[in-house]
Design a protein that fits this description.
The structure holds three protein chains of three kinds. Chain A is an alpha+beta fold. Chain A has four helices and five strands. In chain A, strands 1-2-3-5-4 form a five-stranded antiparallel beta sheet, covered by helices on one side. Chain A has a single domain (about 1-135), classed as Heat Shock Protein 90 (2-Layer Sandwich), CATH 3.30.565. Chain B is of the alpha/beta class. Chain B has one domain (about 5-105): Transcription Regulator spoIIAA (2-Layer Sandwich), CATH 3.30.750.24. Chain B has helices spanning about 25-35, 55-70, 85-90, 105-115; strands at about 5-10, 10-15, 45, 75-80, 100. A five-stranded mixed beta sheet of chain B has the order 1-2-3-4-5. In chain B, a hairpin with a 2-residue loop joins strand 1 and strand 2 (about 10-15). Chain C has a five-stranded mixed beta sheet, with helices on both faces. By secondary structure, chain C is α/β, with parallel strands linked by helices. Chain C starts with a helix and ends with a strand. Chain C is built from twelve helices and six strands. Chain C is elongated. Classes of the chains: A alpha+beta, B alpha/beta, C alpha/beta. The interface of B and C includes residues 83, 87, 89, 99 and 114 of B. Strand 5 of chain B pairs antiparallel with strand 6 (about 280) of chain C, so a sheet runs across the interface. The complex binds adenosine-5'-triphosphate and magnesium ion. Adenosine-5'-triphosphate binds near residues 47, 80, 82 and 83 of chain A.
């Protein structure tokens, strides 16, 4: 698998969340995602970017274009230096929120992508990495 | 700051959401609608036919508008959701509790005019 | 490689490194980048940086007019993204090739203007070679990309073995036949929802008479489809649940929730006709 074209975007305001959605949409279009596939990855990005802003106190998104023989994909890495998550399994469960949300963001985002990983811990900040492939490029 | 404009059509409030909606715009709309809804308002229509994604934040704002409207004015109808948005919401596990949905704005108006469907 | 060639290449590599920012800024304003990265100039500049860096590597390698060098892989990957986006947006291969060719002018202009006399001749030749190679790679991609699009359209055609029928004004139906795997159900769901928009339908019938087996996975797909139909403001009815299938559903303890079901397609149509006119979905 080759990777290329890393781009990095700040997430410090809700306007920048909108910017994240736009940039992820463009990356998905460039990777040949169908409209439904684009919508899924953009929605996941919107959830994760908001968590970065609201729970993580702001951070950045790094977008990487991926390529393997079956097709192209995109990897999104959301990184913040916030309080971190003590119990990831609980945070991922539907309906769990420490704020006023529906508690569906993290678990929902996981259902919308093909690969999902969280690196976090109390005081360590949070890095969420997700990868999405269009239908034709999913079989390894 | 720009705002989502809300129009009054007789006894109905209509808000058409633009393609890209920031969180603060959504919250401002919620406040505007709750402020405008009053006695004599039958319901609220939110046209989302231009909206490209509905995430948990927007879903919650819509549900809260519905909850507030139910007390003050009647029903909230969301119309025109795109197929890609509907599929994504379902895969994600998001619903629109407390809201009515219709295909088109006309259907939404008909529904509110008919008025006999319980909220 | 002659001495002049290699010194030209080295001068170009050094030039690209030193002028990375200026060049990226100029490329970001060209049609190729502007049309793809519409959300902001920064993103276009960022993408252009990537291409300058990749070309710097090619120049360091020194073989400017060889389209097979490994150093070109990165260039190819970057161009492939941009070109795919352009052709998805409807730009034909010729137009895209023209847009790729435009990348050359700012490079040549800057090399000619900025390099000292001793290096200029060899560097200009090397830069021209390099940009010629970029153009070739671009052509190769946009032509093979066209091939990919044709192949994709063929695949989509074969997937629409699941036709959506318009049964009545505002009533659509999809007769499901055969085994339902995830990928196929996804296609069915998408096709049905699109048909709801196209036909301005308010009722969708999912007929599973032709489905041999309903297990938990299939039931879940039916639920999801029904939910999505409702979010869109239409209603969904599942028909053709044969007695054996009804029994399996009960035995497996599958909860179809509040999905409306009917025994036959005719029953479902009757139900649908009663709904049309009220045309109301509940989320
Ligand atoms: N980047 C992060 N830093 C710290 N905590 C986080 C982060 N992301 C998620 N969390 C924690 O995980 C919980 C669940 O997140 P999730 O996105 O599912 O719900 P939410 O953000 O509370 O509500 P919503 O449904 O609106 O997204 C959050 O309430 C928060 O406590
Ligand atoms: Mg969240």
């Amino acid at each position: 698998m080759t990777t290329a074209a890393v781009m990095s975007l700040p997430i410090t305001s809700d306007l920048e969340i909108a910017g994240v959605r736009q940039a992820v949409r463009e990356a998905a279009v460039a990777a040949g995602f169908s409209l439904v596939e684009q919508t899924k990855v953009v929605t996941a990005a919107s959830e994760l970017a908001r968590n970065t802003l609201v729970h993580g106190g702001g951070g950045r998104l790094e977008i990487t274009m991926l390529e393997r023989p079956q097709g192209k994909g995109i990897r999104l890495r959301f990184r913040d230096e916030g309080p971190g998550i003590a119990d990831v399994e609980t945070a991922l469960s539907d309906g769990y929120t420490t704020g006023h949300g529906l508690g569906l963001g993290l678990g929902g985002a996981r259902r919308l992508v093909q690969e999902f990983a969280i690196d976090t811990g109390p005081g360590r900040g949070t890095t969420v990495t997700v990868t999405a492939w269009p239908r034709g490029a999913r079989r390894v | 700051m720009q705002r989502v404009s809300v129009h009054r059509l007789g006894e109905v409030l209509l808000a058409s959401l633009q393609q890209e909606l920031t969180d603060s715009l959504a919250v401002a709309l919620q406040q505007d609608l709750t402020g405008m809804a009053a006695a004599g308002t039958r319901g609220v229509i939110i046209d989302i036919s231009q909206v490209e994604i509905v995430d948990s934040f927007l879903a919650r704002v819509l549900a809260e508008i519905a909850a507030a409207t139910r007390i003050l004015a009647g029903r909230t109808v969301v119309c025109g959701m795109r197929p890609s948005v509907a599929i994504t919401m379902v895969e994600m596990g998001l619903g629109l509790p407390g809201l009515h949905t219709t295909r088109s704005l006309e259907d939404a108006l008909t529904l509110l005019e008919a008025g006999e469907v319980s909220p | 490689m002659t001495v002049a060639e290699s010194s030209g290449a080295a001068a170009v590599a050094e030039f690209l490194r030193a002028r990375r920012e200026q060049l990226a800024q100029q490329w970001a304003d060209l049609a190729l980048f502007r049309a793809v990265y519409t959300s902001g100039r920064d993103i276009a500049v960022n993408a252009a940086h990537g291409l300058v860096d990749a070309l710097t590597e090619v120049a360091r390698d020194g073989r400017m007019d060889d389209v097979t060098v490994p150093a070109l892989d990165q260039v190819r990957a970057l161009l492939a993204q941009v070109i795919a986006a352009r052709s998805q947006a409807g730009a034909g291969p010729l137009q895209v090739a023209g847009e790729v060719a435009e990348l050359k002018r700012p490079v040549i202009a800057m090399v000619g203007r900025e390099l000292a006399d001793v290096n200029r001749g060899a560097a200009l030749i090397a830069a021209t070679d390099l940009m010629g190679t970029v153009r070739l790679v671009g052509m190769e991609i946009s032509l093979s990309d066209e091939g990919a699009i044709v192949a994709r359209q063929r695949q989509q055609l074969s997937e629409i073995a699941t036709p959506v029928l318009k049964l009545w004004d505002r009533v659509v139906a999809v007769p499901l036949i055969g085994t339902l795997d995830s990928a196929r159900t996804q296609v069915v769901m998408e096709t049905l929802l699109e048909a709801i928009v196209d036909e301005r339908a308010t009722v969708a019938i999912l007929d599973i008479t032709g489905v041999p087996l309903v297990d938990t996975v299939v039931a879940q797909h039916l639920m999801k489809t029904a939910l999505a139909v409702r979010l869109m403001g239409a209603r969904c009815v599942v028909s053709g649940i044969r007695p054996q299938i009804a029994q399996t559903i009960v035995q497996l303890g599958i909860d179809l929730g509040d999905i409306t079901t009917r025994a036959t397609l005719a029953d479902a149509l009757e139900w649908a006709l009663a709904q049309v006119g009220t045309s109301v979905g509940r989320a």
